[in-house]
Amino acid sequence: MASASPKLRSSRYARRVLVGSLALVIPLIIAGVLANALATGATLRLCINFFITVVVVLGLQMFTGNSGIVSWGNVAFVGVGAYVAAYLTVPLSIKEELFPALPSFVMQAELGLVPSVLVAIVAGAIVALVIGLPICRMKEVAMAMSTLGLLVIAHGVFSNWRSLTRGNEGVYALPSNVTIWSAVAAACIAAVAAVAFKHSRVGLRVQATREDPLAALASGVNVKRTRLIVWVASGAMSAGAGALWAQYNLAFAPSQFYWTQVFAALAMIVIGGLATVSGAVTGAAIITVVYEILRGVEEDGAFLGIGVPKVSGLAQMALAVITLLILIFRPEGLLGYRELEEWGASWLRRLRRGRSSLSAPDPSEEARPPAEDAGGQA
Amino acid sequence: MRADDGDQTLLRTEDVVKVFRGLHALRGVTLTVRAGEIVGLIGPNGSGKTTLLNVISGVLAPTSGRIYVGTRDATKLKADRVTHLGVGRTFQNIRLFAHLSVRENVEIGAISGRNRKGVDHTADVAALLARFGLGHVADAPAHSLPYGDQRRVEIARALAPRPDFLLLDEPAAGMNENESDELLEIILRVRAEYGCGVLIVDHDLRLIMGLCERIHVLAEGQTLAEGAPREVRHNQQVIDVFLGDAVIDAM
């Protein structure tokens, strides 16, 4: 027996989190520096939007990626965060006019970016807990369907509880608190949180329930409670993302927390790879770029100088087609079940092996898609 | 909750009945496994072996009867709680966390089973992997391993929280003679090193006879015979219902 060293687990965990975080934080910071140096106007706006999108998508990935249960409802938490941010940051004079029904301690509040995001995170966690208590008791498919219900109900509330949300007229007058640097910082913090969560004990347990709920239960995992913890964490992060987004967008309406946003976020994690944090970030980057190009095509009626018919909704359609192609040809997503740093390590090994001619195959090289060996697991 | 008093050392079912929509899968089975004892559970297909394992491990609730783990009444407990009481199990068709690494599979067993304060799980898991010859594939995804290795991962995962009892559901299914001999070695080693009682279901009678101190024979959801391998082998009822002369001769 190896002598029991209490540092061993924590050091392995710390190393995995550190390496996994760096693999995301370094590219994010480089992108941020480049954006700050080179981009202006609409391009800069696009870059800031991308970093905020990363936070939104990581909030969704935390639940859906780790638990394997599709959540249609995380966009509802983004909405909760956005409204909470509005309550806390809109200047006092305008707030009385916008939200006459607010309790006075909220009415008096005029918070900055960080405290308002923190309050939104807490609010998201509380709402997620209330909703999660019943729905985390359900079977996987029923739970996914309930999140769909959550989305529709949340939209109904945002659109109709006029004294608190102003309904479809929307909310405006949020202060512009988000710069490229705060957006980059938020994306980095979200990435580190997602990586740290994935490798934590709860993260491991919930991944076990994704792989095989019965085997997880028989291994002693309390499946319902584990899912509830992830659901609350995911709702909290999504609400934080919403608060961030609202203070960049400055005005919003209920229609901005609905189908379009749900499909875009789901497409991003499906394309990048559901099970990985880096897959979510990769998917966000790819879709943001593709979307922007196609929106340009849609407006200009030209692609690389070639005229194309002006079709509205072209970007949406392309998004759907890309998602379909990925689902057909690489259902586990571009990154599959490996994080960026794991791909890097495996390429390095392959490179080294290539140099020292042929040697025994490394079993950890095997990253087959699940369909091929499903027989052994059935 | 863990105490090494003598009462903790029995896994017991009392008159367990399980009815599925009118189908009587178990008709009152009473069975005991002591600490450090290897008990074989055999019977023809459909005799209720796997159902009994599922009822003991909390995957299914019994229709009536009681299940005790040591002094604790586990009758109404779900599978995760039964695991916390110190009962580990494997499945007939291997159920690993396919896309997680071998190490993570075993680690999940270690951190989710019963609460063992002050245990360094990482060192514990590393030792277990080495013991099962899985050290060199620790970081490979579980689904990439050959069948025999996957079996070992599953047993290692079940053993990770140091259960008092281990339930093995047809561990030798799909194995050739060599692999099944290797499995026999593993199970004997598990008992010797971890001191847990083992309840094993299998059709491989060579394995069962070579391994078990006691054999429990089920037929149509009832106990047909119980005793040492020698007694069971010569029990005329067992021969008639289950084994057949050819099989007995082969032993």
Write up this protein:
- The complex is a heterodimer of chains A (about 375) and B (about 250).
- With about 375 residues, chain A is mostly helical.
- Chain A has a domain at about 10-255.
- Chain A has helices at about 5-40, 40-65, 75-90, 90-100, 105, 115-135, 140-160, 160-165, 180-200, 200-210, 215-220, 225-250, 260-270, 275-300, 315-330, 340-355, 375; strands spanning about 300-305, 305.
- In chain A, strands 1-2 form a two-stranded antiparallel ribbon.
- The two termini of chain A are about 35 Å apart.
- With about 250 residues, chain B is an alpha/beta fold.
- Chain B is globular and about 50 Å long.
- In chain B, α3 crosses α4 and α3 (about 100-110) packs parallel to α5 (about 145-160).
- In chain B, a hairpin with a 2-residue loop joins β1 and β2 (about 25-35).
- Chain B has 2 domains: about 5-85 and about 165-250, Rossmann fold, CATH 3.40.50.300; about 100-160, no CATH class.
- Chain B has 9 helices and 10 strands.
- In chain B, the strands form 2 sheets. Chain B has a 6-stranded mixed beta sheet, with helices on both faces. In chain B, strands 2-1-4-5 form a 4-stranded antiparallel beta sheet, with helices on one face.
- The N and C termini of chain B lie far apart (about 45 Å).
- At the A-B interface, α1, α10 and α11 of A face α2, α3, α4 and α5 of B.
Reading off the top of the CATH hierarchy, the class of the largest domain in chain B is best stated as Alpha Beta
Strands across the major sheet of chain A, in which order?
Answer: 1-2
Order of helices and strands of chain B: EEEHEEHEHHHEHEHEEHH
Strand order of the largest sheet of chain B: 6-7-8-3-9-10
What is the CATH superfamily label of the largest domain in chain B?
P-loop containing nucleotide triphosphate hydrolases
- Residue stretches of chain B low in confidence (pLDDT < 50, at least 5 long) are 1-7
Q: What is the number of E strands of chain B?
A: 10
- List unreliable stretches of 5+ residues of chain A: 1-6, 359-378
Q: Level of helix content of chain B?
A: 25-40%
Order of helices and strands of chain A: HHHHHHHHHHHHHHEEHHH
Chain oligomer state: heterodimer
| Total count of strands of chain A | 2
